[in-house]
Design goal:
By secondary structure, this protein is α+β, with helices and mostly antiparallel strands. It has helices at about 120-125, 140-145, 165-170, 195-205, 215-220, 240-265, 265-270, 325-335, 340-350, 355-360, 370-375; strands at about 10, 15, 20-25, 35-40, 45-50, 55-60, 65-70, 100, 105, 110-115, 155, 175-185, 185-195, 210, 275-280, 285-290, 300-305, 315-320. Helices cover about 25% and strands about 25% of the residues. The strands form four sheets. Strands 1, 2, 3, 12, 13, 15, 16, 17 and 18 form a nine-stranded antiparallel β-sheet that branches. It has a four-stranded antiparallel β-sheet with strand order 4-7-10-9, with helices on one face.
């Protein structure tokens, strides 16, 4: 398994609000045996996750997802469900702030709580987290002792992505809709897929609490409105009846779906990924994945997914990396492949050790270098 395939999901025509384009994904049949619920946390959303081995992940964690493969998903209610008189305004119930234990943790019964997107981001932050495996003299004592700890990356909540909140508010949810592709200035910002239409209706508003990259925030702030999807049907002998008009409209929908899957979403669906299994849940498996970190190409995404025993996607959530984040991942891969020897990594990159030192400093890893290496004394 090294690719993402949205088998069983059909693309519907896009809906546009300013610079935000939302592309619905519809299933003919829900994925049997799996349901997703949302779990809300403290109002400020601040969370600390204990990863074990004296390592912690700190971020804004406004909510978690609970995967339920018990077969009771249709009868069970998500935390926060309230009964009240018709027309009464519901109150939002939230769990008190607490320290999370693990990114994914088993709950009583056949249920698993995991932190959406943070599971994927922690995988990116943990990339070669241990630092130099060999005590080359180019690396500082801190690098050899602590590796890349601490490691930090910037992201923006969906509330701060201009136009996204309004687009989700006016979005028309289709019958059978189980997902959405979010584009900002026609750059793929995120993909979100769930197993059941009822899950999507409940989790649709949670997209404004997700994390988005710096590039997406900038595109939303400075980008121009994008053109809306419009069907163009040419007059002809087949358009003399309603059946002919219906067939022509369906052909336009088919052409849009093909254009979307091959052009718009190509960077996500055509890429290869390194998958890391997080948890097996009966017939389902939770994975997180990383891209190949190739520089100078199309956008690249990290994320997490739940697949069934046939490899079909039941759940998916992605995060688009910025060019700087891709370069950092590429650089770490090259250093690790060369056993963290600067001369070997520079040769693999087709550059000089001095230029590689400059790249390391530019990537924000200057603290890993010894004073000798920063002065240009490398071999």
């Amino acid at each position: 398994m090294n690719r993402l395939e949205l088998t069983g999901l059909t693309t519907r025509p896009a809906q546009v609000w300013g610079g935000v384009r939302l592309v619905p994904l519809v299933r003919e049949q829900p994925v049997e045996g799996l349901r997703l619920h949302e779990e809300l946390y403290a109002d400020d959303g601040y969370g600390v996750v204990d990863l074990g081995s004296r390592t912690h992940y700190v971020s804004v964690v406004p909510h978690g997802f609970v995967a339920d493969w018990s077969g009771e998903g249709e009868q069970s209610a998500a935390y926060g469900t309230q009964l009240g008189a018709a027309g009464s305004r519901p109150r939002t119930a939230r769990l008190p702030r607490h320290r999370h234990h693990r990114m994914a943790k088993r709950r009583p019964g056949d249920r698993l709580r995991f932190l959406p997107l943070h599971l994927a981001l922690e995988g990116y932050l943990a990339l070669h987290f241990g630092g130099p495996a060999v005590a080359w003299e180019e690396w500082s004592r801190r690098a050899l002792r602590d590796g890349l700890s601490p490691r930090a990356e910037d992201a923006y909540l969906g509330w701060s992505v201009r136009g996204l909140k309004d687009a989700l508010r006016v979005f028309e949810i289709h019958p059978g809709q189980c997902g959405v592709m979010v584009y900002v200035a026609d750059a793929l910002a995120a993909a979100f897929v769930v197993p059941h239409p009822d899950d999507y209706r409940a989790l649709h508003p949670s997209l404004v609490e997700d994390l988005y990259g710096e590039l997406i925030h900038q595109y939303a702030l400075y980008g121009a409105p994008v053109p809306e999807f419009s069907a163009r049907i040419s007059d002809g002998p087949g358009l003399r009846t309603l059946a002919g008009l219906r067939a022509a409209a369906r052909e336009q929908e088919r052409a849009w779906a093909e254009a979307h899957d091959t052009l718009f979403a190509g960077e996500l669906l055509d890429g290869s990924y390194a998958f890391d299994r997080v948890y097996r849940m009966g017939a389902f498996t939770l994975w997180r994945f990383l891209p190949p970190f190739r520089t100078g190409g199309a956008g690249q995404h990290i994320g997490e997914t739940i697949t069934d025993h046939k490899g079909r996607v039941a759940y998916l959530k992605t995060f688009r990396l910025s060019e700087a984040q891709i370069r950092r991942g590429h650089l770490l891969h090259r250093l690790a492949a060369a056993d963290w020897r600067l001369a070997g990594a520079a040769e693999a990159l087709g550059t000089t050790p001095e230029e590689l030192v400059r790249r390391i400093r530019s990537a924000g890893f200057e603290s890993l270098l010894s004073a000798r290496a920063q002065q240009g004394n490398v071999r």
